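step=encode ok
step=design start
structure_in=
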């Protein structure tokens, strides 16, 4: 049974990050801690009561495709209608188009509940949100008026259509053609891996498609972005004729079986009608808006599934009786939760989940500031920080999510390998998260090659300075707080040192730097997780010292988790720092023929 982590989410949103972080953002003047609690609590109920019951059936029955191109899912249509009717699709939308205008920080917390309760379902509204944002920023006024109100309300959904069979992640190789035809274009081409590219939830699906206008420059410089609706839209906003858009098949996958991954054909005969977004040959630039939103959202998928795996493993450990642990425990056979190694695995799952959750919500708060703060300099600094953190959130959170789901299997023992327990589904579902929306390697190359290189490490230096300042300001004498603070400060020093080393390598030994890009990204995630655990521990110690809290065990658990992170997980930073400092040559200099 899934239990929405409402208390953990409100702690991060209201106590660790805080509504005050958005002071100076006029758009969020009415946002408050009370608003956040009310929304998260209601989202938790929806996740538990509507989405979670469909998780298992979605896996066992999966999405179904017919030769006519129709795609259905078991029970998801009714759940989606309830989702849209409850206003969840409108949470961050522009009020001018029917949205509620809530911060991305809050939306990131809410999305964890969708992902943790039913990852396959969550992917559909996630892609719609990305399409909405791309249109808000780059669409014409006419396009916005035609598509946004019904996308924001959830009456229509959206997709992100990039990949082609021969191109994979190399978008410069895409061949889908766009032929000018008056005030629109005719598109011809096939796309693969299109999540929720077809379904029966809504009367229309708005595809955001990358294509190459005839005569455009080669490579990524010649890619444009088009709106290609499943059904054309009449001038009065009503549904018109069916466009030449068809789902040719859906993939048979390791996990997320209820989320249809579609092969889509655009323009089998006269061409699918599409409308150019923005200017010609700037499509990849526009699509990156959707991709960045998706990367943050996929990052939270990693720790969301990990959190559910932790819940399930903990429940199993509390009820599974196996032998007598060699430590203090009840007389006779006892639940395995008393075994030290079981406790170690559970603490690893919990500590990584809490660190990743805090980092993702913090990154989202930076994007809120970047989009809405009244001070231009603060907006620019927050944008640089948000950009820096996106690849870390996406890759580190998903890598630790897979580790946690794997540990969940291990806690279950042999029964974890049996489908009936449900532990295997979590592992299968989360495995895709390090792959789609850019693999871990792609995220690491982005962190080094674009985010660090473009400003010579200025954004990273500013972040680490703020982190160190936060840690040095912690004065609590609680042993757990001090352990967390000390470990995090050591990690910050190591990260600062290897960042300087990498910046030097990027200027000359570029291949060596890229060879250790993933270890560097993981080092960054681990260290920033240590910082946030130390801050959480300091808050917890202060709350306990003040007394009067109705749930002191919640804060005691925060202290115990922070101490474990500092003493068991943060030491990995030292090993990764050694790899980053000296391991590049071992990869860069090896002959590929020897592999």
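sequence_out=
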């Amino acid at each position: 049974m899934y239990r929405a982590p409402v208390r953990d989410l409100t702690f991060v949103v209201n106590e660790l990050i805080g509504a005050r972080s958005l002071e100076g953002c006029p758009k969020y003047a009415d946002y408050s801690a009370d608003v956040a609690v009310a929304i998260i609590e209601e989202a938790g109920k929806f996740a538990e009561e509507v989405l979670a019951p469909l998780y298992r059936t979605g896996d066992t029955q999966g999405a179904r495709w017919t030769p006519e191109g129709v795609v259905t899912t078991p029970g998801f249509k009714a759940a989606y209608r309830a989702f849209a009717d409850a206003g969840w699709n409108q949470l961050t939308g522009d009020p001018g188009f029917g949205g509620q205008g809530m911060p991305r920080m809050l939306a990131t917390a809410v999305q964890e509940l969708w992902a943790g309760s039913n990852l396959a379902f969550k992917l559909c509204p996630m892609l719609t949100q990305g399409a909405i944002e791309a249109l808000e920023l780059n669409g014409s006024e006419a396009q916005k008026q035609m598509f946004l109100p019904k996308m924001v309300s959830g009456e229509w959904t959206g997709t992100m259509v990039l990949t082609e069979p021969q191109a994979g992640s190399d978008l410069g190789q895409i061949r889908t053609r766009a032929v000018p035809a008056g005030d629109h274009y005719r598109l011809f081409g096939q796309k693969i891996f299109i999540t929720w590219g077809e379904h029966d939830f809504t009367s229309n699906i708005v595809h955001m498609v990358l294509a190459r206008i005839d005569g455009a420059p080669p490579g990524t410089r010649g890619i444009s972005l088009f709106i290609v609706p499943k059904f054309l839209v009449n001038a009065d906003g009503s549904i018109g004729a069916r466009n030449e858009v068809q789902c040719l098949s859906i993939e048979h996958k390791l996990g997320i079986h209820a989320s249809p991954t579609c092969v889509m054909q655009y323009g089998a005969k006269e061409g699918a009608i599409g409308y150019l977004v923005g200017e010609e040959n700037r499509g990849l630039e526009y699509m990156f808006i959707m991709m960045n939103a998706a990367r943050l959202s996929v990052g939270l998928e990693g720790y969301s599934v990990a959190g559910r795996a932790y819940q399930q493993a903990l429940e199993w450990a509390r009820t599974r009786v196996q032998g007598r642990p060699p430590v203090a425990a009840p007389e006779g056979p006892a639940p395995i939760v008393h075994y030290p190694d079981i406790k170690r695995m559970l603490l690893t799952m919990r500590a990584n989940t809490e660190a990743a959750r805090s980092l993702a919500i913090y990154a989202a708060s930076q994007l809120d500031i970047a989009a809405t703060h009244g001070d231009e300099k603060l907006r620019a600094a927050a944008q640089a920080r948000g950009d820096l953190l996106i690849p870390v959130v996406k890759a580190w959170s998903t890598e630790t999510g897979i580790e946690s789901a794997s540990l969940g299997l291990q806690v279950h023992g042999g029964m974890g390998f049996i489908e009936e327990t449900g532990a295997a589904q979590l592992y299968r579902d989360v495995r895709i998260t390090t792959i789609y929306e850019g693999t871990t390697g792609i995220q690491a190359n982005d962190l080094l090659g674009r985010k660090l290189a473009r400003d010579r490490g200025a954004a990273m230096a500013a972040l680490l300075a703020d982190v160190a300042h936060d840690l040095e300001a912690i004065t609590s004498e609680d042993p757990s707080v001090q352990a967390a603070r000390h470990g995090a400060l050591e990690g910050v020093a190591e990260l600062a040192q290897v960042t300087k080393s990498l910046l030097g390598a990027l200027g000359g030994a570029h291949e060596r730097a890229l060879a250790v890009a993933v270890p560097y990204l993981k080092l960054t995630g681990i260290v920033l997780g240590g910082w946030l655990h130390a801050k959480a521990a300091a808050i917890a110690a202060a709350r306990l010292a003040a007394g009067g809290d109705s749930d002191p065990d919640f804060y005691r658990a925060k202290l115990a988790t922070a101490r474990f992170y500092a003493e068991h997980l943060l030491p990995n930073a030292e090993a990764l720092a050694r790899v980053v400092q000296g391991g590049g040559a071992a990869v860069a200099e090896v002959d590929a023929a020897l592999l």
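step=design ok
step=annotate ok -> The chain is about 55% helix and 10% strand.
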